[in-house]
Structure formats: C-alpha cells, structure tokens
Amino acid sequence: MFEKIELKYGTPRELTMSFPMGPAEFDMLKSSMRDGRDSDVTLFIFKNGNVVVIAKPWYPEGLYRAPSGGIKPGENLELSAKREAYEETGAKIELEKYILRIRVTFTCGSRKEEWSSHVFTAEHLSGDLKPIDTKEIKKVALMSLEELAGLKEKLLAQDSGGLRYRAALTEATIKEISGSSPDKYTEG
User: Fold this and answer.
1) Are 80 and 158 in contact (CB under 8 A)?
2) Contacts of 107 (CB under 8 A, 6+ apart)
3) In DSSP terms, which residues pair with 139 in a beta bridge?
4) Is residue 145 within 8 Å of residue 89, measured between CB atoms?
C-alpha cells in the first residue's frame, strides 16, 4: 500500500510512541475504530509561508493543531488526505512530502490500541479557509511554524492523551520540516 505513495512523496521517518488515556477518551478512540479504522492522515498545509490549522469544537479558545482525519479501510491514502483537507479546512491541496509514519500505542489500564499517523506536507492550491464539516471543526486559521510550536504547552495542559500525542507529533514534524529544508517553510 505504501510503496507507490513513498515513490511519489518520499520515504517517511518512522517513529514509535505511547500515550495513556483516561477511560472516556479511550472509549471514544475505540468507537472511532469500529469500522476498521486504525490510522489517520495528518496534514501540514502551507499557504504563504504559514500552516493551516484547525480547532475542534471542544478546544479552548486559542488551541489549534494540524488537520487530520481517519483513513477508511481500503481508502487510497492520497485521496484520503485530499478529502480530509477539504472537509476540515475548505482547501484543495497538493501533497508535497511524506514526512513521518508514527506508530502509536494508546493505553488505558491494561487495555491498549495501536494506531498509525501518516504525516504529509502539502501546498494550499485553492479554497477559502473555513471548515466544511462544521460538526467536527469550529475554526480554521493560519499560523507560522513558530506559533504552532508555541502551542505545545497548551496542548499538554489539556487532560487528553490524544492531545499529548498531537503535541509530540507536531514537535516531531516541525523538527523534520526544519531539518530538511528550513528556507522553504519559514519567512525571511
């Protein structure tokens, strides 16, 4: 499944992570996996040197992260990325680089679930930045990589293993982006 994607967008760095979750959050994760989903695509979409970010309805004011969405069983990864970008941000995108493949284990007591995130950089091609799926997304905004990195403490302050994971994913992605071509994604 990944061979064609890697030929087109590069071979990602592979990471392994583990995060505990509380019972309610773990049950939500299990519920989202009921149709066979076990992975997501996470997108660092660049527009004019900034990253497109989203806020979920339950996020406190000022908390954002990169858009992501579950990959349906059998769904093409590239098409999934484009679908999620549009649903969450209103943007039509072009994928640029396959940055990371993260295998994460979420635990709750003795229970555990395996999940994978496929992280890509992408370019905003067109579309107003506003959520199409307003049930899942309350806001879309633009941030510099530095501003996005600055949200780490706010993500970690939430009582959420999933958001602690998103903080680690974001930090790893920014390091990967900054190390691979610092001028392309920063202004100045």
Assistant:
1) no
2) 18, 19, 20, 21, 26
3) 55
4) no
Q: HSE-up of 151 (CA within 13 Å, CB side)?
A: 26
DSSP-derived letter for residue 65 is B
Token representation of residue 96: 């640029």
- Can you give the residue ranges of every domain in the chain? 2-177
- Prediction pTM value: 0.92
Q: What gap in Å lies between CA 107 and CA 113, rounded to an integer?
A: 7
Confirm if 87 and 57 have CB atoms less than 8 A apart: no
Provide the strand spans (E) within the chain: 13-20, 39-47, 50-55, 68-70, 92-108, 111-126, 139-143
Q: Is the CA virtual torsion 91, 45, 114, 39 positive or negative?
A: positive
Whether the per-residue pLDDT at 186 is higher than 80: the answer is no
Mean pLDDT (whole number) for 115-121: 97
> What one-character DSSP code corresponds to residue 110?
T
Q: Which two tokens stand for residue 102?
A: 């993260």
- Dihedral pair phi/psi, residue 172, rounded to 5°: -65, -40
Q: Which CATH class is domain 2-177?
A: alpha beta
Look up residue 67 and give its DSSP letter.
-
How much is the average pLDDT of 103-113?
97
